[in-house]
Amino acid sequence: MSTSSYAPKIWTKEFTAIFAFHFILMGAMYSTLVTVGNYAIQKYDVNPSIAGFAASIFIVGVLAGRGVTGYQINHLGARKIMLGGTVLYFLTYILYFFDFGLTFLIVTRLLNGIATGMISTALNTLATISVPEERRGEGISYFSLSMVVASAAGPFMAFLLLEQISFDTMLIYVGILMLLVVLMIPLIKINNVTKETAVKPEKFVLIEKNSLRMLMPVFLMGLAYSSVLSFLNTYAIEIDVVAAASFFFIVYAAAVLLTRPFTGRIIDQKGPNVVIYPTFILMAIGFFLLGSTSAGTVVLIAGFIIGLGFGNFQSAAQIICVNVAPKENVGLATSTFFIILEIGLGFGPVFLGLIVPFVGYSGMYLWLIVPIVLAGIFYMLMVGKRGAQSNTES
Fold first, then answer.
1. How many CA atoms lie within 13 A of 291 on its CB side?
2. Is 248 helix (H, G, I), strand (E, B) or coil?
3. 3-state DSSP call for residue 272?
């Protein structure tokens, strides 16, 4: 790791540039993730399961990108991976503007997802090492807002834009934003390795084994949340709450923005358990409301509660994955967390799309309370008291 001297503060120029880059990258991801399914249904006349696959294949690509990145990050360095991923991103993004059918669209999303996974893992690693270790929980909580706010702003802007413009035109706007944020790359000078400390891996390593304690909780929560990303728009059309649903992710982000600053500090001082156990309960309540209503106001309340739940679960779970790993494997632990999460996010829509014809969208959201409860049970069994340790004690 670089030995640059950093003041004990979080919002340095580098951290801000890393945050901005990740925010736009995630905004680009979510803007297409929540709209491409409906686009595929309208343009190619496919069923919900295939449309869900067209959306979620991107996450599979992200998963592959993270796998390769986590393996090489202590050898090549996070900064070099960030630069390589950025070049690959734009080369694959251009493919969106060629229409050779549904299969070509799916392949394009897979390749662009790989580039996104490479960049995101590199940026998460750089963000983690750029904050003081004693404020790691707070720092990761702040940085993960880049994804949370993007997961709200991206879909919100996409829904608004698609009322006025085509899907292809929206892609142009997204591409321009990515080009602008790339101009901030020269501000990012920190790296997780130097020429002297770079270690060439002896064998392929996909995961940090110590972080696998969080396998089932992260996977099951990701599976549940994938239903919101992939099917909320279609569900809103079905129950006639499209106007309210367009603000769902804004309300979700507001809940996280209101709580992340102090939940991060609580994790540093008292350990993740104080935060993570309530997230399972809140998530279950949110899904119950979402699946049992046809009122726009209740949908928004559900969005706020799910934001309190899943939004804070993400940061707490990532902190646990990093804390249980050796210090030199921060990058691999970060990659492991996102690989698990994105397996749930990526494969969830395909599985859930198959059960929708039998239980409907509302029934799907109600049934998803079961894996949420199971996630809490698995956390208690696999992590339990280990999650009570604070960063000030470690």
1. 21
2. helix
3. coil
What is the mean pLDDT for each group of 10 consecutive residues in the chain (394 residues)? 53 87 92 84 80 83 82 76 92 91 92 93 84 74 83 81 86 91 84 57 71 92 89 85 83 87 80 90 96 89 94 87 79 81 82 88 94 94 66 50
Query: How many Cβ atoms sit within 10 Å of the Cβ of residue 329?
Result: 20
Instruction: Measure the CA–CA gap between 66 and 36, rounded to whole angstroms.
Output: 22
Map tokens 């891996």 to a residue.
201
CB atoms within 10 A of CB 80: 16
The CATH class of 13-186+204-388 is mainly alpha
Number of neighbouring beta carbons within 10 Å of residue 317 = 27
pTM, entire model: 0.75
Structure tokens at 313: 């679960």
Say which amino acid occupies 19.
F
CA pair distance 165, 64, nearest whole angstrom: 32
Domain boundaries, the chain: 13-186+204-388
User: Considering only CA atoms, which of 279, 253, 255, 284 is closest in space to residue 267?
Assistant: 279
Instruction: Produce one character per residue of 214-239: b if its CB has 16 or more CB atoms within 10 Å, e if not.
Output: bbbbbbbbbbbbbbbbbbbbbbbeeb
Short-list 309, 351, 330, CA closest to 217:
309
CA dihedral 177, 85, 123, 210 (to 10 degrees): 140
Phi then psi for residue 198, to 5 deg, are -60, 135
What distance in Å separates the CA atoms of residue 164 and residue 370, rounded to the nearest whole number? 39
Question: Phi and psi at residue 378, in whole multiples of 5°?
Answer: -60, -40
